[in-house]
Design brief:
The structure holds 2 protein chains of 2 kinds. Chain A is mainly β. Chain A is built from no helices and 11 strands. In chain B, strands 2, 4, 5, 9, 10 and 11 form a 6-stranded mixed beta sheet that branches. Chain B starts with a strand and ends with a strand. Classes of the chains: A mainly beta, B mainly beta. The A-B interface holds A 32, 34, 42-46, 49, 51, 57, 60, 91, 93, 95, 97, 108-111, 113-116, 118 and B 1, 32, 34, 41-46, 49, 51, 89, 93, 95, 98-106.
C-alpha cells in the first residue's frame, strides 16, 4: 500500500512552452500533497504544499504564477510549469500524505514519494 | 522557518565499518525526523524515522538518536555493505504545521569493498 505515481517520468520541451506533471496516490486518499524540486547533486527543496480543494501554499521564493498547482481530488495533484525556461530544468518530485487503508491510526507524518519527473527545457 | 543542517557532505568507509551522519535543526517545535536513502535518479526511500517523544530507535543495522535539548539527531549504520552506498537525507517537520518536510543538504555515502 501507499503507492504514489508521477506522469510523465521525463519530458523535454522547448523554451516558452508549458508542461504539466501529474501526481497520483494510487491506493490511499492524500489529504496533502507536496511538490519538491531537486537540482543535480543537491537536496530536495520544497516548492509548495497543496491540500485538496484549496489553494496551494508556496514556499518563499517560488513564483506561484509560474508553478501552478491544482489539487482537485484526494488522489490527484498537478504541477504546471508555465513558460518554461532552461533554468527550470530539474527533477520534480511529489509526495503525498494521508490515511493508508489498513492502518487504523493513519499515517500522520510519513510522506510517500512519487518516482519523480525529469524536466529538460531546451 | 525551520532550517536543517547535515554533515558530512561526503563519507567514505570500508565495508564492515560504521557510518554516522549528523543533523541539526533550528525549530524546537519540530517533532518528526525521518531519514531517506536516495539512489541516483530515484525517489527518496524512507529508511527510519523518529518522533520527538523518543530518544532512540533501531532497526537491524540502522539506528537513529535524537537529542531534543541540543536539537540534533544522528543516523548510525553499522556493518556497512557496498549496497548502502547512496545519498542520505535527514529531514524535520512539524505535524501541526501541515507536516511539510525540510531536508538537510544530503550526505553521499560510499562503502568500499
Amino acid at each position: 500500500g501507499a503507492v504514489v505515481s508521477q506522469h510523465p517520468s521525463w519530458v523535454i520541451c522547448k523554451s516558452g512552452t508549458s508542461v504539466k506533471i501529474e501526481c497520483r496516490s494510487l491506493d490511499f486518499q492524500a489529504t496533502t500533497m507536496f511538490w519538491y524540486r531537486q537540482f543535480p547533486k543537491q537536496s530536495l527543496m520544497l516548492m509548495a504544499t497543496s491540500n485538496e480543494g484549496s489553494k496551494a501554499t508556496y514556499e518563499q521564493g517560488v513564483e506561484k504564477d509560474k508553478f501552478l498547482i491544482n489539487h482537485a481530488s484526494l488522489t490527484l495533484s498537478t504541477l504546471t510549469v508555465t513558460s518554461a525556461h532552461p533554468e527550470d530544468s530539474s527533477f520534480y518530485i511529489c509526495s503525498a500524505r494521508g490515511f493508508v487503508t489498513g492502518k487504523s491510526s493513519g499515517i500522520h507524518n510519513e510522506q510517500f514519494f512519487g518516482p519523480g519527473t525529469r524536466l529538460t527545457v531546451l | 522557518g525551520e532550517n536543517v543542517e547535515q554533515h558530512p557532505s561526503t563519507l567514505s568507509v570500508q565495508e564492515g565499518d560504521s557510518a554516522v551522519i549528523k543533523c541539526t535543526y533550528s525549530d524546537s517545535a519540530s517533532n518528526y525526523f525521518p531519514w531517506y536513502k536516495q539512489e541516483l535518479g530515484k525517489r527518496p526511500q524512507l529508511i527510519i524515522d523518529i518522533r520527538s517523544n523518543v530518544g532512540e530507535k533501531k532497526d537491524q543495522r540502522i539506528a537513529v538518536t535524537l537529542n531534543k535539548t541540543a536539537k540534533h539527531f544522528s543516523l548510525h549504520i553499522t556493518e556497512t555493505q557496498p549496497e548502502d552506498s547512496a545519498v542520505y537525507f535527514c529531514a524535520a517537520s512539524i505535524h501541526n504545521q501541515g507536516g511539510k518536510l525540510i531536508f538537510g543538504q544530503g550526505t553521499e555515502l560510499s562503502v568500499k569493498p
